[in-house]
Design goal:
- The protein is α/β, with parallel strands linked by helices and about 425 residues long.
- The protein is built from 12 helices and 19 strands.
- The strands form 5 sheets. It has a 7-stranded mixed sheet with strand order 10-9-11-12-13-18-19, with helices on both faces.
- It is globular.
- The N and C termini lie far apart (about 90 Å).
């Protein structure tokens, strides 16, 4: 009987079928002489928020994964041992619900899919990480930044992005360094989810370290479109800066409703939303000048053999997605895909323990910046950047060595008037 091999890489496992069958199983006929053998593939599983409250951000994450797949396959696939494996990413919709994300990761495991690309958001990532650990899968975390995920002793989840504590802290640092005159008062509005609260506490700690006066700390329900109560409490305190730690819906509401209520700080700064296209599209001129923290800009240092430099990645993305500039959510998703590819290549295998071992050892410069994990699986080698909406587009302003433009800040007369009003109160 002639033998043949069909290679299937279930996101982790290299399943080799070579005429091995249990007793009683029907033995399939070998392929016809002129039929080409099935092409070996590397299958990665991805549970994503394709619907629900995080659908917009989940869609950006999927685009980053799709770009990774196209670039890798256009270059012949992932070299693993003596084979080149085409990349296939299987998507499931977790509907923005943590419990569903966990169930979908379990389903991938039942299908033999052991290498997982992370969902969008800290809550869904935390739920998935527990299942990953139990099943012996491996996950590249691309959008679960909450530091608390990495305080549970998990050893099989690796986050390519900077930790949550850096999101607000980076904006506070940028304002303190760049704003002239330097503001003295700040108010914080945070959504009540784990990521947003962790990010807020990091920002509060940084503000205190830099000598800023915190005049308010307000929390609002996650995904709410009404933050008027928090803004009404903040208004009489006249903060020079209002910093929002929230997702898209809440972030838009902070800026929009502040205008409606006559809350007029010198500047707004927000964690996630400003870098996404819908922020400017929804707010229009009101978005101008808003600061945002970002995991990536096209000026980021580093390059790799798959995507080149940050600017080259941006050009590739723009070509694939109708001239649109990439958001950082796109880039971080591609970086997670890249991390799994690099680990599988170095391992010469897709066996999950081998891939996990190489992920833990990664020390790479990439288009996304450095990827190097600490013992808890966090990429502490990478710093965040700060952007500002200028002329309707997000532009990198901090750190200075990778800035695309100077920070735009209200003139001295405006700043002094606001400061005098604050003192009068």
């Amino acid at each position: 009987m002639a033998s043949w091999t069909h290679v299937f890489l279930g996101s982790a496992a290299l399943a080799m079928v070579a005429g091995c069958h249990s007793k009683g199983d029907a033995v399939p006929a070998p392929p016809a002489a002129n039929t080409p053998a099935a092409e070996p593939v590397l299958v990665l599983g991805a549970s994503l928020s394709l619907t629900g409250s995080l659908a917009r951000e989940g869609g950006l994450t999927r685009e980053g994964y799709e770009l990774c797949s196209r670039v890798v396959n256009d270059k012949g696939g992932v070299p693993v041992g003596d084979k080149k494996l085409k990349l296939e990413i299987r998507y499931q919709d977790d509907t923005s619900k943590p419990d569903t994300a966990a169930q979908l990761v379990d389903q991938f495991n039942d299908q033999g899919v052991k290498l997982i690309l992370g969902p969008y958001g800290s809550a869904t990532t935390e739920a998935a990480a527990a299942v990953i650990e139990r099943n012996g899968q491996v996950m590249a975390d691309v959008a679960g930044a909450d530091d608390k995920i990495f305080q549970k002793g998990y050893t099989r989840t690796f986050a390519v992005l900077s930790p949550a504590t850096m999101y607000v802290a980076s904006m506070v640092q940028a304002i303190a360094e760049l704003a002239q005159p330097r503001p003295t008062t700040v108010a914080f509005i945070s959504a009540d989810d784990g990521f947003s609260k962790t990010a807020t506490q990091g920002g509060i700690a940084k503000a205190r370290e830099l000598g800023l006066t915190i005049v308010a700390e307000e929390y609002v329900p996650n995904a709410t479109a009404d933050v008027s109560s928090a803004l009404t409490k903040i208004k009489p305190k006249n903060p020079q800066v209002i910093i929002g730690s929230a997702h898209m819906v809440e972030s838009i509401a902070i800026v929009r409703q502040a205008g409606e209520l006559g809350v007029k700080p010198l500047a707004f700064a927000e964690t996630i939303a400003p870098h996404t296209p819908d922020f400017v599209k929804t707010l229009g001129p009101a978005a101008e000048g808003v600061l945002g923290s970002t995991q990536w800009t096209p000026k980021a240092a580093g390059s790799d053999k798959w995507f080149g430099s940050a600017s080259e990645y941006a050009a590739t993305f723009s070509k694939q997605f109708s001239g649109r500039d990439p958001a950082y959510q796109n880039a971080e998703a591609t970086a997670g895909c890249l991390a799994l590819i690099l680990a599988a290549e170095k391992a010469g295998s897709t066996e999950p323990n081998a891939v996990r071992e190489q992920l833990a050892k990664l020390d790479e410069q990439t288009f996304f910046g450095p990827i190097r994990f600490n013992a808890q699986g966090q990429n502490v080698a990478k710093f965040m950047s700060v952007i500002q909406i200028q002329n309707g587009k997000p532009v990198g302003v901090w750190p200075k060595n990778s800035a695309e433009a100077p920070l735009q800040w209200p003139d001295n007369a405006t700043a002094k008037a606001a400061k005098t009003k604050t003192k009068a109160k």
